[in-house]
């Protein structure tokens, strides 16, 4: 058996979100038609990868994103609570336009500490649960590839962690487009490299917000 194992962190595709709310962990948010196509493109990208283990978060949009890959490879989809979207105090509120959460003074207290961050689940906690899930998947797929379908902030937090960068960041500068793949390559238990790909292309600046 090869000592090389790759854990791919796949962000879900575009979500149907006409009200432009920060949906977070709210139920009822599924992929848009474009998101369904993104999931198919992601599955095609994995065609030449030796994927033997497939995991998604409990959210509907990640299961939908995982389904084309599961169908193509005959894989069971496992659900892992540890790779769920980050908790956020602004969940369910609009994030764009004149009535967006950033413009309301009553919300400014929640923005007092971007290092933590004060408006949601601490970055250190996101990193800890995500790394635990990544290592569990690595162990399940020894010598092969695993795919974890998760969400933008948890995936980006993992990358910041393994690359030794600070957690505080500008969300607009995350390299984690819709249906993108952040790949962690391991030599045994040692992280050997990080790579990034966009099977569905870059996310446009005016993409539907919320994840």
TrEMBL record:
Keyword Phosphoprotein: no
KW Hydrolase (keyword) present: yes
SMART domains in alphabetical order: PGAM (SM00855)
Transmembrane segments annotated in the record for this chain: none
Family annotation (InterPro entries): His_Pase_superF_clade-1 (IPR013078), His_PPase_superfam (IPR029033), PGM_Phosphatase (IPR050275)
Pfam families: His_Phos_1
Keyword line: Hydrolase
Molecular functions per Gene Ontology: hydrolase activity
Matches recorded under SUPFAM superfamilies: Phosphoglycerate mutase-like (SSF53254)
Enzyme class per UniProt: hydrolase
Enzyme Commission no: 3.1.3.-
Protein name per Swiss-Prot or TrEMBL: Histidine phosphatase family protein
Organism: Blastococcus brunescens
